[in-house]
Amino acid sequence: MTTSNILEKIKQYNTIIIHRHVRPDPDAYGSQNGLAEILKASFPDKTIYVVGEEEASLDFLATMDDIDDHTYKNALVIVCDTANQERISDQRYLQGKELIKIDHHPVVDAYGDIQWVEENASSVSEMIYQFYLEQKNNGLQMTDRAALLLYSGIVADTGRFLYPSTSERTFQYASDLVAYDFDRSAIYEEMYKTNLNIARLKGYILQNIEVSPTGVSHVKLTKETLGKFNVTSTETSAVVGVLGNIEGIQIWVIFVEEDDVIRVRMRSKGPFINEVAANYEGGGHPLASGAKIYKWETIDPLLAELEALCK
Ligand code: AMP
């Protein structure tokens, strides 16, 4: 698979519908909408849609299109940043004529007629910029807005160029992207603003974490606790990083109770945790994974598996 295969496919279709994963983050939005902007600028005669559930905290990046089922007839569907089909936001992705997967997670579900997966890419936004660079001589055009979207995705998925996935290429692309005309400070302000409730919840987490002798740390956020701090389950994505630079912690897990599931947010400094996540209906990256459990007692075997990784 090369990026020219993807461009050829795009050229064959008049309607292109771009999806991404549920509970979106800035890389999901950045890659989906960055690609859409590039395609709109490059092919003004084509109709390009972006779909999926709206996430209010990402409205500053983009808003979604509302489309009928019949729009999928004869459409090309592209899914960004989504390892498995279950996590695709808007399950109508199967109603298109052909399907392309563009992703940077380890392959757990090889879906799509064309699959472009780069596990070493820091973000799918980085891959979309690579797509543009490799195909700009074949008609792709970049815009300021696409640059803003891709830059935001890269910044978010690299933890502001901190995570080991940040490569020389990431910096090169980021340096290209900041040359476009967009307000970087405004983006940082939107991405990193913390409301008082989240700030207080971070305080609660720091007060209540348990740390094992091997360096596995965890905290439980029950529905009652979330209610007390007036923070939603989705918003807890903003608190996961708070344990990342505490000395002695190798792996940290935040359990977030929802109505019918306990969402497990796991991060690691070294041991690969995505296989443990896969044992609990989850998956993700080697150092950043998610899973689901259904009762509090399951915490013990899950933590035991993480302990085994640290020993
Ligand atoms: P999160 O803690 O939700 O930010 O998730 C971290 C990473 O784990 C993301 O990159 C997701 O791709 C992945 N992930 C989270 N939940 C799941 C799940 N239920 N199944 C597969 N991958 C997941």
Characterise the protein shown here.
- With 311 residues, the chain is α/β, with parallel strands linked by helices.
- It has helices spanning 3-12, 26-42, 124-135, 144-157, 168-177, 184-192, 196-208, 223-229, 274-278, 299-310, and strands at residues 15-19, 47-50, 76-80, 98-103, 114-117, 210-211, 216-221, 251-257, 262-268, 283-284, 288-293.
- The strands form two sheets. A six-stranded mixed β-sheet has the order 6-7-8-9-11-10.
- β7, α8 (223-229) and β8 (251-257) form a beta-alpha-beta unit.
- The chain is globular and about 60 Å long.
- Bound molecules: adenosine monophosphate.
- Residues 83, 87, 105, 237, 240, 265, 281-285, 288-292 line the site of adenosine monophosphate (AMP).
Cα shape: globular
**Helix/sheet category:** alpha/beta
Helical proportion, percent range: 25-40%
Q: Characterize the largest beta sheet: strand count, sense, and whether it forms a barrel.
A: 6 strands, mixed
Radius of gyration: 20 Å
SSE run:
HEHEEEEHHHHHEEHEEHEEH
What fraction of the residues are assigned to beta strands by DSSP? Answer: 15-25%
Number of strands: 11
Uncertain stretches:
none
First CA to last CA: what distance?
Answer: 40 Å
> Which strands sit side by side, in order, in the main sheet?
6-7-8-9-11-10
Number of helical runs? Answer: 10
Q: Which ligands occur here?
A: adenosine monophosphate
Quote the average pLDDT: 97
